[in-house]
Amino acid sequence: MTSMTTADWHLPYGANVVPGGVRFAVWAPNARLVEVELHGDGGPSTHPLSPGADGVHEGTVPGIGAGAHYKYRLDGGQGFPDPYSRFQPDGVHGPSEVIDPGAFAWHDRDWPGLAAEGLVIYECHVGTMTPEGTFDALIGQLDVLKRLGVSAIELMPVAACPGRWNWGYDGVALYAPSANYGRPDDLRRLVDAAHGIGLGVILDVVYNHLGPDGNYLRVYAGDYFTDRHKTPWGDALNYDGPNSAKVRDYAILNAGHWLTEYHLDGLRLDATDQIIDTGPVHLLQELTARVRAATSRSVVIVAEDARNDVKIARPAEDGGYGLTGVWADDFHHQVRVFLTGEREAYYADYEGTAADIAATIAGGFFYQGQPAPRAKKPRGTPVTGEPATAFVFCLQNHDQVGNRPYGERLHHDVAAGRYAVASALLLFAPETPLLFMGQEFAASASFLYFTDHEPELGRLVTEGRREEFKAFRAFQDPTLRHEIPDPQAAETFHRSKLNLAERQINAGIYALYQALLALRRDDPVLATQDRARTRAAAVGAQAIAVHRWHEHRHRLLIANAGPSVGILVKDQPLLAALPLANAEPLLSTAERRFGGGGDRAFVTDKGDGWRIEVPARTAVVFGFEEDERGPRTGA
């Protein structure tokens, strides 16, 4: 196992600038001879490396430095890019470039990193967030995002992929930022600028598979992969079989590379249910422990995992993997069904009732071991003392939007008032919220699935994409499936770009998001993120109450997605014991500044007991303390 410590962390493989030259190291256990093939103005020149007992070939080439272009040649064959390449300036099939990560002048010495508490994540795709689609262009959006009220941006994968554009999950040069977005120092400049204004940066990384085009790992070692396990994308990476130590290092050192060489504040690990490891220490546990040891700053590690397994976010000393948290998509699914009635595919496992949404907010996961109808087997594990920060909730993310046939967002499918109610639910809940770029201003742009593969692979991707929707009633006709946007078409990518002017055009919903995020950050109750002091219940067919408290202060959200309601407090167990006589509205989605009609909510006594009157399609946050001061009416 390669060591990785805070004081002297460095990448032991790939090309590293040293005094007088560049040190090269690559794992190629079956090669008798590995040569560095330098690409320069005078044509290629080769330099042999020395083989080691562990299959690593290494050596120093004098007289070169950062900026040199190279490939590796194995046993006299053709050259291939470095598996540990820090940059692929001409794409995934071209030469690798020597990069000196120590040459960048950082200005974030006092940046403490990210903590789980108070985290609000803003997921974005570098290529579609701005018209230019670059790291440098994204720097220009940081101040706006800071004023919005998020605490970290989460970049969809930036590792080099084939073609001009890609979601990022077809990465093959996992250590190299995509040249489509800029050079490595452009990414460093983005992170440095974010830290300068108090924003963290999280990176989405993929360790369950590599893309289908430009993956040269098998050239170097067949043991990178195993046919003992399968994933939806083919053979699994070999994390638990013979000769797996170097494969585990490939992933773990990659995580450390992003956190140290780029000063990133956290990682989102893609589809960890497809990281198959039957060994004594799961890769997720080892990776988390080692990368946390690699930096003195606080970092967050979040998994996307379909299993609803709290072990992922449970401390290692308690038998878990020790990650910060996990995407908890039950909330998204319940809300989507609640608002749209959609019940196909994985939505068939959700009834989307007000009671089920309340249970999800109270529990973090909805499925905690009970049978899932579609799978016909139990799903999930019981949630016990896990904090609210262990669960990441969303209304939109790249998967839930982009894997729809037309990339439609939630606000494209529901009325504005109901979307505002759902937004209030997300940002009032104690769990960590994730926003997907553009949802805060109800972006008109879809987020479609796009690729730019070579023609034959691209044809297969397009056919496969459309075939995925065959089971949906709306697409059983092949003619209708053919209308699903072609991932390979340039138009599909360009249609996914945000129109940032819509922040002003849709100023009402944007102001609502700013206000909800400010309340979440500054309010002494909501800032605590205490799941143990959160209760939620249905208080009507389309109305949900969420009660949160801290010390003597109470906050109550009534989220009403249906017609106006008058909730008789004494009939609702969650509300009956609350001192609502002094409740005052702190925020209502119906306020005119948010684009609402100005209808007011009231707490009133009409003789039969206290009632909470809430207008149609409105969410209201009430604040009150435990002393009785008499009734208050709404603003």
TrEMBL record:
Active-site positions on this chain: 270, 304
Protein name as annotated: Malto-oligosyltrehalose trehalohydrolase
InterPro entries reported for this sequence: GH (IPR017853), GH13_cat_dom (IPR006047), Glyco_hydro_13_N (IPR004193), Ig-like_fold (IPR013783), Ig_E-set (IPR014756), Trehalose_TreZ (IPR012768), Trehalose_TreZ_E-set_sf (IPR044901)
Listed GO biological process terms: trehalose biosynthetic process
Residue(s) at site: Transition state stabilizer: 399
Segments passing through the bilayer: none
EC number in record: 3.2.1.141
SUPFAM superfamilies listed in its UniProt record: (Trans)glycosidases, E set domains
Alphabetized GO MF terms: 4-alpha-D-(1->4)-alpha-D-glucanotrehalose trehalohydrolase activity
Disordered: region residues: 38-60
A GO cellular component annotation in the UniProt record: cytoplasm
Pfam family for this entry, one: CBM_48
Keyword flag Cytoplasm: yes
Occurrences of domain Glycosyl hydrolase family 13 catalytic (ranges): 98-520
Known catalytic reactions: hydrolysis of (1->4)-alpha-D-glucosidic linkage in 4-alpha-D-[(1->4)-alpha-D-glucanosyl]n trehalose to yield trehalose and (1->4)-alpha-D-glucan
Chief location of this protein within or outside the cell: cytoplasm
Keyword terms: Carbohydrate metabolism, Cytoplasm, Glycosidase, Hydrolase
Location(s), subcellular: Cytoplasm
UniProt xrefs under NCBIfam families: trehalose_TreZ
Pathway named in the protein's UniProt entry: Glycan biosynthesis; trehalose biosynthesis
Family: Belongs to the glycosyl hydrolase 13 family.
